[in-house]
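Hi L.,

You mentioned the student needs an example of a multi-chain input paired with its predicted structure. This one should do, with 573 residues in total across all chains.
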Amino acid sequence: MRKHHITFLSTALIVACFLIVSAFGVSQDTYAASKVQLTVLDPRGELFSTPAMPINTRLKTLEGKKIGILNNTKPGADYFLPYLMQVLKESYSTIEFKEWKISYNEYPNKANDLKALAAWSDAVIGLLGD
Amino acid sequence: MVDQSEVEKAGIPTVTASSDQFEGLARNTVKSIGLPDMAFVIVPHPMGMISLQEIRAKADEAFPKIVQLATQWKPAGSAVQSAAPLYPAERIKFKGTYVALNKMFYDRGWSIGLPIIPPTPEAVMAMLKGTTHNPAEVVWSVPPRMGQLTVELVAAYGVMAGCKPEHMPLLLAVVKALSSPDYDWRGSTTTTAPTNPIIIINGPILDELGIGYSTGVEGGEMPVNVAVGYFINLVGDVIGGSVPPEIDKSTQGSRGDLVAVVVGENEKLNPWKQSYAVEYGFRPTDNVVTAFSAYMGNNNTDHTSVKSRDLLNTFAAGIAGASSGITSCLTQMDKGYAVTNRVKFVFVFFGPEHADTIFNEFKTKKAVSEYLVKKAALPFWMYAPDLCKPPKEFGSYDENTLIPRFTGPEQIRIVVTGGPGKQSQIWPTFTTVTKPVSVLIEK
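Structure written out for the whole complex:
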């Protein structure tokens, strides 16, 4: 290869390298330029401030007690709860049960049903889930 | 859990057997209502649609724990939740790229994964110019997290979703509708069902704000509709905390849980002239938002029927089969939620061409609804067990007897929306919704 060809190729290679490095540098500058500094609101909102209420004292025994059964009418409740009552009755022969079928958003009698359930019962067993 | 908590508040100790898949939701719920120490027995999911043998095995396993929690157990005791000022919302300084900002919002649970517009104090102040409400006013304790949504935060979410200051009255009306007990936001956003908030807008505001009501009304390229729909889910997920899988239990989710369905009624092409809002007691000059929670809708694509009745018959098929498996028969609008009164209304979004064909014979919307009430029926065997128990007055029936889903025309609600084309949609309401909620948009 003639000397001037080598010189030309070398120069072209150097220029190409320079252009590549410069392009990378420009990208970095562009990236850096897209950074912002701002203030934003925390959108989460404070939680409703409810004083934590202690739950009620447990019964000393289930013997002789009136246990309200809160059936949420979901599938399975009509099988799970009767069997549970049967098993509890086998262990506590004087236990008494009464069942209330109360759907989640039942209207308009739900509040009255819950009051009646609470009024009758010494304790309540309920369900959650499908 | 809300029901059990009422019993605890009445002074009666409770024990709840909870499916393990719902434990997170249960604990979140009792914390938000101030009873963090309620007693749970965790039972492997599911408790329904399994064999009797499996149910008994789960009950046997739960039995000793139920007895223990009912008699001996003493909780450790939880700290009292401290009050904090609601307004103004805390300000956070950020430095970085917009990509990093969006990542921060998502990582902190401040967004739902789609890009947001940063709620800077300046942008929020600009939004607040769209209302005369006090920014410190609390307009909703959003279930199930019970985050306090102030007017300031309504503006912040509006900014994030791409709304404008002139949208503030609409956003506040939407919040008012969604927060109604009749909507049942808590149930809708924590259920396993694929629920979609549905918003229908009526009135001069449609053209004033450029709200979509014609071709592609539920799709993209509807900046106002999409922004309002996005706003709704930002509020629900971020401040309300309804995030899968712990709290939002929706088995497969739904697109409306990303951007809610927001439609304007196409009042100009409604052949019955009476808009939905006017039909339900508002004036034509009123701007009204109507909201309800819906199961996944289905569509009617009848391109063949020329006669009104033929077309309505195909709608009857779609209405009868909508949200299959959860629907009761012979439901009544004025009766509350019960196993035998599930999914007690549907909305039909008639495309204008379908509406025109139906109008040829049925000159009032009530006549349309009355026809569909009779025709939207399933054979008894198609109803899920226990959901269809016809009363004595219905007469004798066997498994092949056609039994209607509804009993009154008010249970089939009609809206005309969309553009040219023979397409319509049927949206059945989520099962615990009492009725659609209509709210006047303040000027």
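You could point out the following to them. Chain B has a mean pLDDT of 93. The two ends of chain B are 39 Å apart (CA to CA).

Best wishes,
N.
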